[in-house]
Specification:
4 copies of one chain form a homotetramer. Chain A has 361 residues and is of the alpha/beta class. The first copy, chain A, contains 11 helices and 14 strands. Chain A has a 6-stranded parallel sheet, with helices on both faces. The longest helix of chain A is centred in the last third of the chain and has 17 residues, at 341-357. At the A-B interface, strand 7, strand 10, strand 11, helix 10 and strand 13 of A face strand 7, strand 10, strand 11, helix 10 and strand 13 of B.
């Protein structure tokens, strides 16, 4: 099988480094183009990341000699890749424009950036939850007269720790009505250098810029219905979120209090069974990055813990625990997942796999 | 002025060490009796804590030669102290019985233990919130035919981070109806050796045994009304709590989502003003350990932080920040305080000061 | 190929849990017997470690139903295993006696314990360094009239971070004469619960009981010569060590200052070449747990770092960096390795592999 | 008594913030001028540090409205201060030139910067060790035709953890000949934002740029003799240092191996007595920031620990422990002190106090 040639925009940055590692030995994709800011452009990749490679694992040695392209010049990617992952940094306007120029040139863009998340004809996809939103790509292509190219986004990492358990209950007929969420998020979510050690030694920081708002709004688009190729925000869910930073390297943890709409599960055991048996599109389609079980329930009182559970399902599963009745809403639980794998590069790779199977790449 | 002679039961333990330091140079009390388990009894205090003194500051050198008493033998405290602070460890039954035997012998007990918190004629006091519950002592003395002695308790450390802000709103006429709380609690709350470092390096633990329940129930007694010298639990407040442990030495942080009963504040500014202007009994009575302002509001987005705010008001103030509207309940905010000072030994010392002024010691 | 049946003494403890994980899918050995203290004996392994399993990865599900044996009763191991790994806890005398009873019954013991390290006819082996010391087993068998059984030990974890680089230089003709070493050791070295979090948050502890002494003496036996089946301590090396504990989960780091005996390398480059090209018995014999390169040299100024380098060579390699001239002795460098893999269970498994190839198992 | 008016160059930075807090309520000095980079110049100090104030304690409210000056324009300081503390950032050349321009204008400069440490006629002073080097100021004034102004520096923070114990032995007649040192340094030594949290969670970094070299060379100037108003480097001491960064907020710890020149102490007890009884100029002169005892010896095996010992003597004392014989050199010990107090702002304030008493301010 001939592998699709993937490009990485922002390859020298924090998310880019994750892409580089996760795509090593990928069965369907191979990294064939690495682009970054004009500063790094023209350098060997090995030189461009020297002193800036912060991942625990080294990058594949065969990438060291690739000459880094200029991510702001989409034409450089032509002939070199069949699609790109974008974790390119810049102003919102700049990213919006640049990503669309790749699409215009016929290069599909799977983006980690928030820039296009609220663009009407750009879907924000979590495989296993709103896979059918890929159809918005057709609308986008029509609207913008793109032939092969398009832009899709993935949501913020903070919500991925608990979207799967909500979706599983939804599919079982139990719709969410109101949610109060607080998160304990890992340092790597802020990239590198990111959060100073002086802020996280013997300390937590109860604020992450923009994160509360993203956590409250993005689920409404993801749970949105599709009408005539357009997404209508889901109107019947209210979320209140408080996001905090804790001294953890990888793994976001969320404490979720949830109220159901009219219909409620009969027991906590029923809910756990729903979670344990949940299988979604990525599992049914056999996507290479899909975990065997998207949701893992741990019965131990003291789980999930980010360090012990972040690697479940190769970092692509959500681990849930501490399901209890909530005296204010209906239920409460703790949910955790790997923020830079499921929540960032891994989730985008899974999206690309989905797009490939659906014929969009 | 002649100082009251205080005893410390459990003086060699984690809370006991806090008492020792906080009572150094106290204007009204002086430590005159140190008691611990039979293991330590009979040793010099300096020897009993050798290798077990885990506080950053050393203990006062004048205590080194005090011979440690046996806390399980209340008669040893007679003639040596006018009242005792109890952080004695043991089974619930054992603590209940032992503390009452001190009271029976005429020695008032201000206890950190949870053993008597739900005993009907024992008040659970937070000075500045339910000071008038001290009257339950009269009932207790009558019930049990105590003359001078009695037992009072203080609530669990986890709720002290947010009880003052709730009380301030209550006094202003805004009663709480429903609260969803999640906490990020410091390691010192588990005592020493307490939480293993392997559990808190690059990790959080989303569970503290018994803590969710205490957080949900104890406020109902504290906010209870007094009828004929008995406390009736406050019936109109529902609390749902999830308590977690984070890699912080001292300082519990709570994320509070709050719904008011019928009457609601007009604006967030009004709430902040209520908090900033809140003064309670300890301030009015000029208690030595009372902070000038029991509640400090920080306008910065990223506060309160446990390391930076735990020492506010010498560890006796609550620092609040991030007040926002909540789309599910009414408001949400983050609140933090020092768990071993306000939340434990400091809070109990403030209670003793209150009891002294009220004529009970 | 029929796998050898391995037993694990102390299987529920910290090192035992490492054995369980590292032996999963081992090509030569399979775990067939799990033993622990009388407390755990008779329980299902799954029950015995419930709430005590502290490794990030779960234990293989097929071990859950194995009934735990009593490690203090060697006869229980008969028929169940061809040899045992011992990380059984107890007094020195108790361990010495128990391990020898296994040997007497014909069951070879590869021990992590320090109890027999200084027993004259028991070798202390680091594969790749003193492989030929296995011959002491013959002496031991003769002395004690053992037929098949014997006891071998491995040295303390703290020295493994730098023994390989010293050995590589030795083999190249550059003998060490004097060494000054300080270590920054990981929390997992103390087992679980081990070091309290209150000791390692915002702190280091400059003392590990017994560790300085082991670091100074054990290399003398390992580098000892063999005469008539007996080890003579190497007389010409003086070591001064200071061992400290730092807030790191896994990975011991050593700062080594080294003076050579008469002959000295010509340049730092020569030394790096020696390290990079070093291959030893485990590599030549193709032992399954042997890393491809026992020593990895990192040229970056800021390496080795325990979190980034501990997994090099699947946790079995030593990573070295910062080689510089020393103005007091001859050279200095920083060396790091995984303390619970190379330094404990992994090192013992490699020893067992060596013993198997040499015909002792 | 009229207080001297102090200025702080670089007042918004990490060291500057320390100065601000340490000079609050100083008996001899009052902060009357705050200067920073052109970016901050012209702003209210409260605005200039908004979101950048990283100290645990707040700055004195009376400084909030001071308009920040431009540190690169020495003339702005005229009339506003009698001397300045300099922690101004910039290139070495720029700092060298700027500090000398202050001196030229008649404003003495006590500098934390390394820029002038090796300028021949600029002394590098640790009060209590080389107080008499202040005489080099006379040479400097003569050389450069300064009337009132001058520049003095203080050494790097990393060496302050162990210079006092060396000096105490020296004064007792035991001169150091060779030293091998490794340090475990706190995050705050790198300023703010400084070291990323991703580098120090579950990790140490065995490298701090320039720190090994400073540790090896600066003591030679501090121990240098004065001949004709010039410092001759001490020729008979060789130091080899390896400096590492650990996850500690404040407090540098050093592991010191020391060889004496011809004369050696008779016993470890003698050394401890020398340290405990050591008193130096700052104590004899009664300087306000001088600790009662510059060296505190702790007999416990596991001390000094940075978190527990950094505040000894209000952060101005050195705490020493673990004195043992060294089998390679003569003795070894562990020494620790507060890097941003004794090692930075506090040390410079003590220097200013010394200069004031000596008539130089």
């Amino acid at each position: 099988m001939i592998k699709l040639r993937a490009g990485i925009l922002g390859a020298t940055g924090a998310v880019g480094q994750n892409y580089v590692l996760l795509l090593e030995n990928h069965p369907w994709f191979e990294v064939n183009y690495l682009a970054a800011s004009p500063n790094s452009a023209g350098k060997r990749f090995g030189d461009a990341v020297a002193g800036k490679w912060f991942m625990d694992k080294n990058f594949p040695s065969n990438l060291a000699d690739i000459v880094v392209g200029d991510a702001s010049k989409p034409e450089q990617a032509l002939e070199k890749c069949d699609f790109v992952f974008s974790s390119y940094e810049g102003s919102k306007e700049n990213i919006q424009e640049t990503e669309m120029r790749y699409a215009e040139l016929g290069i599909p863009v799977v983006s980690n950036n928030s820039a296009h998340r609220w663009t009407r004809d750009v879907p924000m996809i979590i495989p296993g939850i709103n896979d059918y939103h890929v159809e918005v790509i057709d609308t986008q292509r029509t609207n913008r007269r793109f032939s092969r190219g398009f832009v899709v986004t993935k949501p913020n990492c903070s919500i991925q720790a608990y979207m799967a358990p909500i979706e599983a209950l939804w599919k079982a007929g139990y719709l969410p009505k109101r949610m109060i969420i607080s998160t304990e998020q890992a340092s790597s979510g802020a990239g590198y250098p990111g959060v100073p050690s002086l802020d996280l030694l013997d300390n937590i920081v109860p604020f992450i810029s923009g994160e509360d708002e993203k956590s409250e709004k993005e689920p409404l688009k993801i749970f949105g219905t599709l009408t005539d190729g357009e997404i209508c925000l889901y109107p019947n869910l209210k979320i209140s979120a408080t996001c905090t930073r804790v001294p953890v390297i990888n793994g976001h943890t969320a404490i979720v209090n949830l109220e159901f709409d009219n219909k409620k599960p009969g027991s906590l055991e029923e809910i756990i069974d729903i979670w344990k048996n949940f299988l979604a599109e990525p599992q049914k389609l056999g996507l290479p990055s899909a975990p065997q079980h998207p949701i893992i329930y741990r019965y131990e009182d003291n789980r999930p813990q980010p360090r012990k559970d972040r690697d479940a399902g190769n970092g692509m599963a959500v681990t849930v625990g501490r399901l209890r009745k909530c005296d204010v809403l209906d239920i409460k639980f703790v949910s955790s997942s790997h923020n830079t794998i499921l929540g960032a590069a891994g989730g985008a790779i899974l999206t690309a796999e989905l797009l490939h199977v659906k014929g969009y790449l």
